[in-house]
C-alpha cells in the first residue's frame, strides 16, 4: 500500500467522520432557537454541529440530541416551544438556573422519549401543563423549588413508568387528583410503580382521598406536609405495606389516626405533628423500624405515656409535645438503645423524673418544659441536656438548677477541622480539607428524611461526606474533597447541610463538571446511610477564566474541515507519531519500565525486594488464557484469577480491566511498597505484569477465605475462643511488622475483617494494601485525603486528615470486637463500639457481655475481660491514648497464656483438619475497590 493511497484513504476516513458527526438539522435549529432566548449559555455553543463539536451539556446518539444537562449554568430566559423539536431527547436537567422564568410550554408533552425531567431550583411559574401526562416514558419528574401554581394535573396518572414524583416547595393548590374524581379517569392512584410522592410545602387543600392509597402501590415515601389538607387520614394508608416515610405534619387534618397504621412495619419515620388529630393515641406496637416519631400539637385524648413506646427499639427521636400526656414518665423509656432526643413539653406529666443508670448513651436532649414534674433523680454522670423550665421543680429553691434555664437548639455550628495552619488562600479562594486553595461549588442539601436528631454526632457527617465522595468518584467526576457543615433542623422538621465541593487537579470547575455534579445530586442514583432523599440548591458559580475542553475540540474539528492543507499537516504528524509509537511499544515490550523514567530514577525500574516481573504470555498460560472457570473474584477494577505457575506455585492474579488502569507511576509505587513486606502474617506479593497495556498483581493464593466469612458461618469451620485469639494474634503481628519493622514503616489504612485472609491452617494474614501509605517518621503522621471503610475508620483521622499508625490500631480494635461478637461494625445504624460500651454500662460486672457475644462461643471465656479491655483501649477517641501494635501483640500473647492455663474448652477443629481444604478467599468481596490509583476512595456500606 503506497503512501499516496494511504493519504487518500485517510482523507476519505476524515470525511466520513465529519459526515457522521454532523447534527440533525432540526435539532440544530431547536438548540439555536433556545440559545437566542437564553443568556449565559456556554461559550462553546458555536458552529452548526453541536454533536460533533461537543457543546457543553449536550449529548447525542446517531446525530440526534438525547440529553441536555445544564444544571447550575446561571442561565436566564424562558423555555420556549422550540424544545419540542428535540424529539429524541431523553434526559433534560435545567436545575439551579434561577434566571429561568415563565411557564412550561405545553409542547413539552411532545418529548415522548423523555425519561428524566429535572427543573429543581429554577423560577418557573404558572400551571404545570396537562400535556405532561403524555410523557409515557417518564421515570423521574422533579419540579420542586419553583413557583408553580394551580392544581396537580390528573394526567400525571398516565405516567405508568413514573417512579419519582417531586413537586415539593411550590404554590400548587387544589385537591389531590385521583381517577374517580377526574373527568379523564386518571389520577395519582394510577401510579402503581411510583416509589416517591413528594408533594409537601404547597397549598393543597381538601381531604385526602381514600382511593389515593391501595395495596397494589409500591410507595416508600408519602410526603404531604405543609399543605392545607383537611379531613381524616384514610385507613387505606395502612394497606401500602412498602411505606417507609410518612409526613402529614403541618396540615389541618382531624379525626382519629387509623388503627391499622401499625400494619406498616417498614416505616422508619412518622410525622403527624401540627394537625387537629383527636381520639386515642394510635397503638404503634410492631413498628420495629420506627426511628423518628412526631405527633406533637394535636388534640388526642388525655392518656398516660403509652407502654408501646418502650418497645420501639429503633427509636431515635420522640416528639410528643402538647398531646395531653399525663402521669409519670416510665423509667425504661430512656433506656431505648438508640434514643437521642425526647420532647414531651407542654403536657400534664407529673411526679419524679427518674433517669436510671442504663439510659441510652446516645441520649442528648430531654425537653419536659411546662409540665408538673416535682422531682428529679439521675444516674451519676448523666450528661444530656435536660429542660425542666415551667415545672414545679423549678420553683423556689429549685430554680437554681441548670435544667431550669437551659434552652434547646436545633442546629450545630460544626465545621470539619483541617491541619493547614501554614496555608493561606487569596483571591477569594477557599481552603479545602486537603489543604488546597480553590473555588468550591457550594450549596445546600435539603433532606426530606433522616434517621437521627443528634446534630453533634460527627459520625453522621463522616458517613454523608464519605458516601457523596464515593458517588462523585464512581461517576468519574473531578472532585478532590467535600466539606459538610452547619447542620440544622428547621421548624418543618427538614434537615439542611451546607456543602462545599472542591475541584480536583485545578482550582476551579468547568461548566461540564458543575452541571454533572448538580445532576448527580438531584438525580440521586445512590443511597446514603442514615439519610433519605434530598434536593440540592446551589449558590451561583463563577466560571471566569475556565476553558472547556470540548471548545478546544470543536476548534480543532473546524480547522480540519476548513483547511485541506492543515489536514495534510495533521496526517504527516499523525504518521510520524504512529511510527514513533510503534518503536516505543517495541521498546516497552523489551523493558516494561521504559516509560517510567523520572529525573530521580534513571532506569525507572521499581526497587523490588523479592517480587518478579512476569511476562504477559506466562500469566495468560497459567490461567488457561484467563478462562472464566478460573475466576475466583471480581470487582470494579477487574477480575481475580487462580493460576498455577510453571514452578507449581498456586497464585491469585488481579487483572485490571480496560478503563480501570491506574497511572504508571502509581502502579510502580504500589509494587515497590508491596515488595517491601515479607512476613508470615502478611499476604505476599509474588510479582506483577506491566505489558501490552496490562496491569496485574500476582499474590500468593490463600485458600480459606476472609475472617469475615468465617465469622459469619459461611465456611465449614467452627471458630472457638482459642482459635479466635490465635487469629487476633496473627493479624496483630502482621500489622506490628508493618508499623515497626518495615523500612520505612507502612500504615495499612484499611484494616477490616475482609482484609484478613486465612491460609490452609487458618493462620491469619493481612491483605490488600491498595490504600497503604508510607509513614513519615519525622512528623509522626501523613496528611492525606480520608480513605477507608465506614465502621472501621478512625474518627480522629477523619476529622484531622492526619493518618498515623494509631489509625490502624483503631481499625484493629473494631476487628477485635468483631471477633468476639461476630457482628458487622455497623448494624441497623448502630456502631459495634457504642454497642459494647452500652452492654458494659448495663451490667454491674462490665464484662458480662453475653447478650452481644457470638452465640457460637461458650458462655465462659477465660481472659475475656482483658480482651475487651484491650479492644476498647484500641478504639479510644484520642490516638495518643491507644496502644501501639507491638503492645497489642504482647497483651494478646498474655491473654493466650492465661487462656491456655485455664482452658476449659477444646477446639472442635484440629489443625490437621485444615490441611488441603479448598475455599474461595475472595468470594464476592471486591478486592479492587481499595487499591490506590484503582479507585481514589473506598467508603463501604456495612
UniProtKB/TrEMBL annotation:
<feature type="binding site">
    <location>
        <position position="654"/>
    </location>
    <ligand>
        <name>ATP</name>
    </ligand>
</feature>
<feature type="transmembrane region" description="Helical">
    <location>
        <begin position="555"/>
        <end position="578"/>
    </location>
</feature>
<keyword id="KW-0547">Nucleotide-binding</keyword>
<keyword id="KW-0723">Serine/threonine-protein kinase</keyword>
<keyword id="KW-1133">Transmembrane helix</keyword>
<keyword id="KW-0433">Leucine-rich repeat</keyword>
<keyword id="KW-0677">Repeat</keyword>
<dbReference type="InterPro" id="IPR001611">
    <property type="entry name" value="Leu-rich_rpt"/>
</dbReference>
<dbReference type="Pfam" id="PF00560">
    <property type="entry name" value="LRR_1"/>
</dbReference>
<dbReference type="GO" id="GO:0004674">
    <property type="term" value="F:protein serine/threonine kinase activity"/>
</dbReference>
<dbReference type="InterPro" id="IPR013210">
    <property type="entry name" value="LRR_N_plant-typ"/>
</dbReference>
<keyword id="KW-0675">Receptor</keyword>
<keyword id="KW-0325">Glycoprotein</keyword>
<feature type="signal peptide">
    <location>
        <begin position="1"/>
        <end position="21"/>
    </location>
</feature>
<dbReference type="Pfam" id="PF08263">
    <property type="entry name" value="LRRNT_2"/>
</dbReference>
<dbReference type="InterPro" id="IPR055414">
    <property type="entry name" value="LRR_R13L4/SHOC2-like"/>
</dbReference>
<dbReference type="InterPro" id="IPR008271">
    <property type="entry name" value="Ser/Thr_kinase_AS"/>
</dbReference>
<dbReference type="Pfam" id="PF23598">
    <property type="entry name" value="LRR_14"/>
</dbReference>
<keyword id="KW-0732">Signal</keyword>
<keyword id="KW-0812">Transmembrane</keyword>
<dbReference type="InterPro" id="IPR011009">
    <property type="entry name" value="Kinase-like_dom_sf"/>
</dbReference>
<dbReference type="InterPro" id="IPR032675">
    <property type="entry name" value="LRR_dom_sf"/>
</dbReference>
<dbReference type="InterPro" id="IPR017441">
    <property type="entry name" value="Protein_kinase_ATP_BS"/>
</dbReference>
<feature type="domain" description="Protein kinase">
    <location>
        <begin position="626"/>
        <end position="896"/>
    </location>
</feature>
<keyword id="KW-0418">Kinase</keyword>
<keyword id="KW-0808">Transferase</keyword>
<dbReference type="GO" id="GO:0005524">
    <property type="term" value="F:ATP binding"/>
</dbReference>
<dbReference type="InterPro" id="IPR001245">
    <property type="entry name" value="Ser-Thr/Tyr_kinase_cat_dom"/>
</dbReference>
<dbReference type="GO" id="GO:0016020">
    <property type="term" value="C:membrane"/>
</dbReference>
<dbReference type="Pfam" id="PF07714">
    <property type="entry name" value="PK_Tyr_Ser-Thr"/>
</dbReference>
<keyword id="KW-0472">Membrane</keyword>
<protein>
    <recommendedName>
        <fullName>non-specific serine/threonine protein kinase</fullName>
        <ecNumber>2.7.11.1</ecNumber>
    </recommendedName>
</protein>
<dbReference type="InterPro" id="IPR000719">
    <property type="entry name" value="Prot_kinase_dom"/>
</dbReference>
<keyword id="KW-0067">ATP-binding</keyword>
<comment type="similarity">
    <text>Belongs to the protein kinase superfamily. Ser/Thr protein kinase family.</text>
</comment>
Amino acid at each position: 500500500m503506497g503512501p499516496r493511497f494511504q493519504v487518500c484513504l485517510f482523507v476519505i476516513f476524515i470525511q466520513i467522520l465529519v459526515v457522521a458527526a454532523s447534527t440533525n438539522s432540526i435539532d440544530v435549529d431547536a438548540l439555536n432557537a433556545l440559545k437566542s432566548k437564553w443568556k449565559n449559555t456556554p461559550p462553546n455553543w458555536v458552529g452548526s454541529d453541536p454533536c460533533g463539536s461537543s457543546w457543553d451539556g449536550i449529548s447525542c446518539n446517531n446525530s440526534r440530541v438525547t440529553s441536555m444537562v445544564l444544571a447550575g449554568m446561571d442561565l436566564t430566559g424562558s423555555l420556549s416551544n422550540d424544545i419540542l423539536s428535540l424529539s429524541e431527547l431523553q434526559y433534560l436537567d435545567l436545575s439551579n438556573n434561577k434566571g429561568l422564568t415563565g411557564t412550561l410550554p405545553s409542547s413539552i408533552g411532545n418529548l415522548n422519549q423523555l425519561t428524566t425531567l429535572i427543573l429543581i431550583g429554577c423560577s418557573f411559574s404558572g400551571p404545570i401543563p396537562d400535556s405532561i401526562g403524555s410523557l409515557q416514558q417518564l421515570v423521574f419528574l422533579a419540579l420542586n423549588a419553583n413557583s408553580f401554581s394551580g392544581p396537580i394535573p390528573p394526567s400525571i396518572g398516565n405516567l405508568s413508568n413514573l417512579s419519582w414524583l417531586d413537586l415539593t416547595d411550590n404554590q400548587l393548590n387544589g385537591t389531590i387528583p385521583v381517577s374517580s374524581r377526574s373527568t379523564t379517569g386518571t389520577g395519582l392512584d394510577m401510579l402503581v410503580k411510583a416509589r416517591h410522592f413528594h408533594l409537601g410545602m404547597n397549598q393543597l387543600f381538601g381531604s385526602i382521598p381514600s382511593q389515593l392509597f391501595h395495596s397494589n402501590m409500591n410507595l416508600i415515601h408519602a410526603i404531604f406536609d405543609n399543605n392545607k389538607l383537611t379531613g381524616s387520614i384514610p385507613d387505606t394508608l395502612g394497606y401500602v405495606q412498602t411505606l417507609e416515610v410518612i409526613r402529614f405534619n403541618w396540615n389541618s387534618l382531624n379525626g382519629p389516626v387509623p388503627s391499622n397504621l401499625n400494619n406498616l412495619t417498614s416505616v422508619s419515620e412518622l410525622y403527624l405533628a401540627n394537625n387537629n388529630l383527636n381520639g386515642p393515641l394510635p397503638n404503634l406496637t410492631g413498628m420495629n423500624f420506627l426511628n423518628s416519631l412526631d405527633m406533637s400539637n394535636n388534640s388526642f385524648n388525655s392518656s398516660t405515656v403509652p407502654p408501646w413506646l418502650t418497645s420501639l427499639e429503633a427509636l431515635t427521636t420522640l416528639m410528643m409535645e402538647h398531646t395531653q400526656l399525663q402521669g409519670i414518665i416510665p423509667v425504661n423509656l430512656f433506656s431505648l438503645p438508640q434514643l437521642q432526643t425526647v420532647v414531651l413539653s407542654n403536657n400534664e406529666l407529673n411526679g419524679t423524673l427518674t433517669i436510671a443508670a442504663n439510659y441510652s448513651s446516645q441520649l442528648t436532649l430531654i425537653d419536659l418544659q411546662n409540665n408538673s414534674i416535682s422531682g428529679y433523680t439521675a444516674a451519676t454522670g448523666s450528661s444530656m441536656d435536660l429542660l425542666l423550665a415551667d415545672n414545679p421543680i423549678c420553683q423556689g429553691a429549685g430554680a437554681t438548677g441548670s435544667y431550669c434555664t437551659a434552652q434547646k437548639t436545633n442546629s450545630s455550628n460544626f465545621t470539619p477541622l483541617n491541619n493547614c495552619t501554614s496555608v493561606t488562600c487569596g483571591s477569594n479562594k477557599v481552603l479545602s480539607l486537603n489543604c488546597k486553595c480553590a473555588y468550591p461549588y457550594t450549596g445546600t442539601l435539603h433532606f426530606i428524611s433522616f434517621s437521627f436528631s443528634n446534630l453533634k454526632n460527627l459520625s453522621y457527617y463522616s458517613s454523608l461526606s464519605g458516601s457523596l465522595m464515593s458517588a462523585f468518584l464512581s461517576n468519574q467526576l473531578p472532585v478532590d474533597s467535600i466539606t459538610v457543615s452547619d447542620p440544622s433542623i428547621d421548624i418543618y422538621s427538614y434537615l439542611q447541610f451546607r456543602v462545599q465541593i472542591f475541584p480536583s487537579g485545578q482550582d476551579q470547575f468547568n461548566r461540564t463538571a458543575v452541571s454533572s455534579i448538580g445532576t448527580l445530586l438531584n438525580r440521586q442514583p445512590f443511597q446514603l446511610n442514615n439519610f433519605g432523599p434530598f434536593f440540592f440548591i446551589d449558590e451561583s458559580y463563577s466560571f471566569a477564566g475556565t476553558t472547556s475542553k470540548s471548545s478546544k475540540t470543536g476548534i480543532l474539528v473546524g480547522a480540519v474541515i476548513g483547511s485541506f492543507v492543515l489536514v495534510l499537516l495533521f496526517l504527516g504528524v499523525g504518521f510520524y507519531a504512529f511510527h514513533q509509537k510503534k518503536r516505543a511499544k517495541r521498546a516497552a515490550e523489551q523493558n516494561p519500565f521504559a516509560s517510567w523514567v523520572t529525573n530521580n530514577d534513571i532506569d525507572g525500574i521499581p526497587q523490588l525486594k523479592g517480587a518478579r516481573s512476569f511476562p504477559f504470555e506466562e500469566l495468560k498460560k497459567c490461567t488457561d488464557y484467563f478462562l472464566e472457570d478460573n475466576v475466583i473474584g471480581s470487582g470494579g477494577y477487574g477480575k481475580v484469577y487462580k493460576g498455577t505457575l510453571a514452578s507449581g506455585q498456586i497464585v491469585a492474579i488481579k487483572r485490571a480491566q480496560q478503563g480501570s488502569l491506574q497511572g504508571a507511576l502509581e502502579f510502580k509505587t504500589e509494587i515497590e511498597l508491596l515488595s517491601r513486606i515479607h512476613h508470615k502474617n502478611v499476604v505476599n506479593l509474588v510479582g506483577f505484569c506491566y505489558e501490552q497495556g496490562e496491569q496485574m498483581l500476582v499474590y500468593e493464593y490463600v485458600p480459606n477465605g476472609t475472617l469475615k466469612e468465617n465469622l459469619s458461618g459461611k465456611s465449614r469451620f467452627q471458630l472457638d475462643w482459642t482459635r479466635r485469639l490465635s487469629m487476633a494474634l496473627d493479624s496483630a503481628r502482621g500489622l506490628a511488622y508493618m508499623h515497626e519493622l518495615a523500612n520505612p514503616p507502612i500504615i495499612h489504612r484499611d484494616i477490616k475483617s475482609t482484609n484478613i485472609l486465612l491460609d490452609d491452617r487458618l493462620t491469619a494474614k493481612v491483605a490488600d494494601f491498595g490504600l497503604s501509605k508510607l509513614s513519615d517518621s519525622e512528623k509522626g503522621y501523613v496528611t492525606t485525603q480520608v480513605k477507608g471503610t465506614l465502621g472501621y475508620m478512625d474518627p480522629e483521622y477523619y476529622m484531622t486528615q492526619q493518618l498515623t499508625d494509631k489509625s490502624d490500631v483503631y481499625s484493629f480494635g473494631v476487628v477485635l470486637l468483631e471477633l468476639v461478637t461476630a457482628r458487622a461494625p455497623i448494624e441497623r445504624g448502630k456502631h459495634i463500639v457504642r454497642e459494647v460500651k452500652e452492654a458494659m454500662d448495663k451490667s454491674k460486672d462490665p464484662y458480662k457481655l453475653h447478650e452481644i457475644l457470638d452465640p457460637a462461643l461458650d458462655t465462659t471465656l477465660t481472659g475475656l475481660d482483658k480482651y475487651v479491655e484491650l479492644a476498647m483501649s484500641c478504639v479510644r477517641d484520642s490516638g495518643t491514648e491507644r496502644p501501639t501494635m507491638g503492645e497489642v501483640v504482647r497483651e494478646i500473647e498474655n491473654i493466650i497464656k492465661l487462656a491456655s492455663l485455664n482452658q476449659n474448652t477444646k477446639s472442635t477443629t484440629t489443625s490437621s483438619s485444615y490441611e488441603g481444604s479448598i475455599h474461595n478467599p475472595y468470594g464476592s468481596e471486591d478486592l479492587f475497590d481499595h487499591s490506590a490509583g484503582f479507585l481514589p476512595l473506598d467508603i463501604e456500606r456495612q
